[in-house]
Amino acid sequence: MTRRRAILATAQADPLNRGAFPEKGLDAYQYDSVLELAEAPPQPWVAPRPDAAKGSLQRHRFASTALGNTRSVYLYRPAGYRPGAEGNALFYLFDAEAYLGKVPTLTILDNLIAAGRIPPTAVVLIDNPNQQSRAAELPPNPNFAHFLGEELTPWLHRQGISAAAARTVIGGSSYGGLASAYAALRYPQVFGNVLSQSGSFWWAPPGAEAQWLTREYIAAPRLPLRFYLEAGQFEGGMGQSGIFETTRHLRDVLQAKGYPVIHREWSSGHDYLNWRGTLADGLIALLGRPQG
Question: Are strands 32-33 and 20-21 parallel, antiparallel or unpaired?
Fold first, then answer.
């Protein structure tokens, strides 16, 4: 681990590579080089389209009694959003800073809704107070689940944002994918769909066996939930179960219990470059009507 940290601290972008993500910064330490082969899946929803009406974004500060802290939450409403309209959908998304920066989430939503691939979908993007709180809250944490289901959700209703559980998605990447699956297990009456991008399903509390959440799903009765799970082939554990392997295991467990599961694997690593493209895939799979 120490060696890996040293490598990451000194790694820099390839000056001869014209592909940069998210974009070229002031120096080579502020962006990554992109390796994209000829048959890489297209990312057709990430660029603004002139015919796609833009939604609105509002930033709020939210104080949680359950967690004893305050964070930013961002509310996206699509153009022409009508509170309470039949067919509205709702998307809870973790790591707001990354999904408003490295991932053009608002553009993706604008494009998908304008093209009729998903219904009018409001989004609540949930920020982390700091990195320490992210590490404490996103891995299965009953207080954080309480915050989502019993503090944030009623507040959203008061903002005119709501949807039935069957049309509500909770999602994120890495720890965010793990948190999404845990929150749905605790509050299936609120979150009916889980969108996990490279979820950290290897996680376990200190001293416990790996893949704790998968065992929780084994022990629990089947719930009214649907899943979109994805992982990259370069997220293996190198001799132990990593994200790639544990996502497959969770898929197998969920399917054995009768859950609807859509599972995707990509030739990718643990990065937002791939997740920015596959976010649309997950939303279409869970909320939309795929077109031929």
Answer: antiparallel
Handedness of CA 191, 192, 194, 195 (dihedral sign): negative
Q: Which of 287, 266, 286, 288 is nearest to 277 (CA)?
A: 266
Of residues 84 and 29, more confidently modeled: 84
Q: Nearest-CA neighbor of 96 among 68, 58, 132?
A: 58
Model pTM? Answer: 0.92
Q: Mean pLDDT of all residues in the chain?
A: 92
pLDDT in tens, 254-292: 999 999 999 999 999 999 999 999 999 999 999 996 554
Q: Rounded CA gap, 289 and 178, in Å?
A: 26
Q: Are 115 and 289 in contact (CB under 8 A)?
A: no
For the stretch 7-40, what's the b/e string if a residue is b when 16 or more beta carbons lie within 10 angstroms of its beta carbon? eeeeeebeeeeeebbbeeeeeeeebbbeeeeeee
